[in-house]
Amino acid sequence: MRLLGLVAGKTPKAQPIECMGLTFPNAIGLAAGLDKQGNCIDALGRLGFGHIEIGTITPRPQPGNPRPRLFRIIAEEAIINRMGFNNVGIEEGA
Hints:
Elements: H1 2-8, E1 17-19, E2 22-24, E3 29-30, H2 41-45, E4 51-52, E5 70-73, E6 78-81
Parallel strand pairs: 3-4
Antiparallel strand pairs: 1-2, 5-6
């Protein structure tokens, strides 16, 4: 919400939301992929997101799939994502 306030010039009123028995400060969340290793979770939390998903982090480190991992098929108007969950593993991440 703080980030939205910086962008829009006015911070909206936080409205808590409940989902599956959990209460979140607001409904605006950050999906996995931006902070793959969980290195920036505190900084991202200060931006006012109601929830933050990190990762994907696996039990052991893995390099992911061979490159290219992300590419377009222009004729089909498609994007293929086959990253393979490249990450440092749970012991080093988060």
